[in-house]
């Protein structure tokens, strides 16, 4: 699947965000977790990819089924500021 630079940038951003689950990326861009991993591997330097994998591996907030019911939003309220 081909994405324009804005879409690819947004996917990478969502993948790095702790509270954005892989399911949200799949819903918005039709990329499952394995496809996101492949995109990250292609798009990041190898050291950055390893840091990202270590960060998200086993992180409960990246998977809806593992996520606590206390987490009710996908981002921090101060994350998106008005322009």
What does this 3D model show about the protein?
The structure is a single chain. The chain has helices at about 5-15, 20-30, 35-45, 45-55. The chain starts with a helix and ends in a 27-residue tail after the last helix. The protein is mainly α. It is about 50% helix and about 0% strand. The model has no long low-confidence stretch (mean pLDDT about 80). It has a domain at about 5-60.
User: By helix and strand content, what is the structural category?
Assistant: mainly alpha
Helix share of residues?
A: 40-55%
Distance between the termini: 31 Å
What string gives the helices and strands in order?
Answer: HHHH
- Over the alpha carbons, how many angstroms does the gyration radius reach? 13 Å
Shape: globular
Q: What's the pLDDT, averaged over the residues?
A: 82
Give a count of the beta strands, DSSP E runs of length 2 or more. 0
Number of helices: 4
- Chain oligomer state: single chain
